[in-house]
Each structure stands twice: as C-alpha cells, then as structure tokens.
Amino acid sequence: MSAQKTLEDLIEKKLKIIADHREVPSGVVDELIQLGIEVEARQLSVGDFILSDRVVVERKSVGDFLQSIVDKRLLSQAKLLRETFERPVLILEGKGLYSRRAIHPNAIRGSLAALVVDLGISILPTRDEKETALILAAIARREQMAENREVAVRGAPKGLTLSEYQRFIVEGLPGVSAVLAKRLLEHFGTVEKVMRASEEELQQVRGIGREKAREIRKVMTAIYETEGSQQLPQRV
Fold this sequence. Notes:
Helices cover 47% and strands 13% of the residues. It contains 11 helices and 6 strands.
C-alpha cells in the first residue's frame, strides 16, 4: 500500500469520542469538534471521555483534583475506572497543583503515587481545555487508527466471532463494560450461566458490587412492561 493510499484511509476514517454530557459546556467538546472529531454526548457512569473499548479518560481541573483528595473520593473514583476499563487515564488540567489549597505537598504526592503505582492509572498534565482536547485526539487517533480499535458504543453486531457475540450480549447488562463482560464470561464460562447467576455469585467477579449485582438481577427477573419501564443506570 502506498503512502498516499495510507493517508487517504486515515483521512476517510473519522475519529469518534464519547463524552459525558456534563463535559459539553466545558469547552473541551468544542475544541474536539474544531479538530474534526465526531463527539457523541451521553450520560456516562464512569469517566468523562471514552476513546476506545479499553481507554477511558477522567478529566479533572487542579481545583477538583485537590477537592477530591479532601473529600476522600479520589481513590474510589479511580478504582471504578480501573475496574471498568483496561487503560484508564487521568488528565490533570491547570496550574498551581501545590499552591491552590492548604494541602500538604506530601499528601498530593502520595495521592499521585497511589494512582500510578497501586491502580495503574496514567496521569497526563495539561494547561487548558485546548491542550486537553489535543491529548484526547492524540490518544483516540492512536487507538482507533494505529491500533484499529473501536469506540465502546453498542450497535448492531456485524461479522462478529462467537466470543465477540457472547461479550456483546453480556455488555448489554446494566453497568457492564467490555472489560467486565470478559471477566464475567471467564468466571462463569457461558452466557447462560452469567444470566442465571445470583447476586452473591455475581459479586465474586472483580468490579461487580452489591448495587451492580442487584441491577443485573433486576433486568433478568423483572416482568417486561411495554410502557413505563423503570430506567436503569446506563452502561459505560
């Protein structure tokens, strides 16, 4: 294949990023659109941007990052990212990490170290929304073009292998990502056994807590209603 043909193929394939609907007013989405990237706004239960079936990005301003240390919600959020996606990334946007609040620098360094060493989360600093968009675009380009990976959006399956079709079915459960679907199938062996598993059995799988197990069982056992069905949390 010629270099010109390769370039044409890359241009023809449009990058796509799924953004949490709360990120739309931030300015990052506008920057992504200006870069020619297709952005789909959705309600995400994990992360702010999904760049492929394995990469999720949590975007935090320096102020929000420091507040999350104070509130002690940083590690719980980070663990959820790690449990749901194979390659979680934290974008730390802004300046003044060690000067904005009266938080001891060692506490900040300790939190950063825990994210990287204990949870395997990559941390990328950016100056502003524009640079954040450029980083997102670079990762999406690498995932979707260089690695030929798909964005984790459910659609009509075409040409799937048996194992891919099995994962596709399990991913339809509430709160079940591509990573969790694979874990569930590896643990139970078949789609049928996943669907028949009790709440207690589901919780034996890493990333399935009590609430998520309850929602899965609710989908499996609730009587179907044509109208007025109760809404469930959207899957990432």
